[in-house]
Amino acid sequence: MALTLFERLLVWILRTIVRILDCFLSLTATQRKSDRSVRLPPITNPLLTATAMQLARRIRRKEVTSVEVVQAYIDRIQEVNPIINAVVKDRFSAALQEASQVDKLIEEETGGEDVLEDRLPLLGVPFTVKEAFALQGMPNSTGLMSRKFVISPNDAPTVALLKRAGAIPLGVTNCSELCMWLESHNHLYGITRNPYDLGRIAGGSSGGEGSILGAGGSVIGVGSDIGGSIRMPCFFNGIFGHKPTPGIVPNEGQYPPASGQQLGFLCTGPMCRYAEDLMPMLKIMGGSNTERLCLSSEVDLKTLRFFSVPHDGGSPLVSPVDQQLVQAQKRVVEHLEAELGVRVQKLNIPQLKYSFQIWGAMMASPGKDGKPPTTFSELMADRGRRVWPLWELFKWMFGLSDHTMAAIGLTLVEMFQSARPSSFILKQRETLQKDLEELLGTDGVLLYPSHPHLAPHHHHPLLTPFNFSYTGIFNILGLPVTQCPLGLSKEGLPLGVQLVAGKMQDRICLATAVYLEKAFGGWRDPGKGSTASRSTAP
């Protein structure tokens, strides 16, 4: 079908913008090199290298006070945040007061350590929260200028559950505008930087959370994921993250809310530096729902079936997978086979080539009530005033728009997106869903790249906007996925892999992540630039 004059004009405008951006990004290469010369200070306080569970245990046993732990993390945030711009609003004074109350509670407790562990498993442990979630007294703008003065009157259910478990929030972290982009950048808080290379992105939409965790300024955090918004930041920042089986962890209390079929794709989950903390965090964040996951059941990795898919089959919309990521995944396969005595079956799954088309089609589909999802331009509206994408694009060219290029681009894409998926794409989704569910069953783990590239340079995702499909496809399929770091690349950037399990089998990919952390070293301090810290071998 021939394009209309308007459509041809829009295509020309978008191509021109991409060319301008490409030139701009090339011209800033010198600046990116200077960014690499700036390294975060290494961690010196040993409290910052303990897991959340270890900290909770030491606090309960009075080996260290909660005030000491909270102060250590406040000091680290104050040390690194001016460099990476991850925490956008803190509550340090309130956190120290709450830590003091925790220490007093422990002094007065007569029931013993076991009672405290059962009732308050995270007592005295600090955590951070993605700004898209409601945290009482903190901003909840999601990077939208029109929500600049929105303050949360209460806590999102997930935040409330963590606080009820004794954890102490330190503040909220940056995200992409309206949580729908690969880079955490908005005109309200600015851009968040990767702790391993300041010229690189921290990911999105939970990029601030990933950045502060990767920098050692937090030990556990709250993120959300509708297309990879937990897993991409965790990958780029060298930490662990888990997208649970849908329907386990409550999604309420975050902005923007999901609508249409998106309600079944959005997942709230844990982000952390240490794999040991994933399981207890998930238990707390899911409340009574986690009983359905049988998380306390033992997992014998030697009895599992492992599969490895090295790429999506060659989508023309998506970049080829970086060879360092291919080799890192290969090393995982070799290690599993050598140490566990299992056979890892290498597969090619042809339907994965249509991951972006499947994700886009399902995200735009109406819900069970027949109502279409709220459009991105509707969410961007300022107090009911409609946003006109082409007008915003014009203003952006002169630096006058309140919105980022990524957000404006999404509204332009929406103009031509059909709410009725093609029968071909629906068939690919149906076949992929059936084949993967049968393949994984209750004892299968799939290894799949976290992203085609290592952490990209700032703004480069504008030139490769569909690369998130490596994570987004599993939101549509409703499968639990754990992002696992695998050491550092030759450039000193995090490597990683996704561990995918069957529905309700979260414990399997979580157990695999714990095993691979021991084998490959897990999170690395970005402040230490030694050759040894960059080893990728188990």
From TrEMBL:
Signal keyword on record: yes
Gene Ontology cellular component list: endomembrane system
Lineage: superkingdom: Eukaryota
Keywords carried by this UniProt record: Hydrolase, Signal
Molecular function in Gene Ontology: hydrolase activity
Lineage of source species: Eukaryota, Metazoa, Chordata, Craniata, Vertebrata
Pfam families noted in UniProt: Amidase
Name the UniProt record assigns to this protein: Fatty-acid amide hydrolase 2-A
Signal peptide limits: 1-23
UniProt similarity note: Belongs to the amidase family.
Residues the record marks as active site: K130, S205, S229
Record domain Amidase: where: 68-510
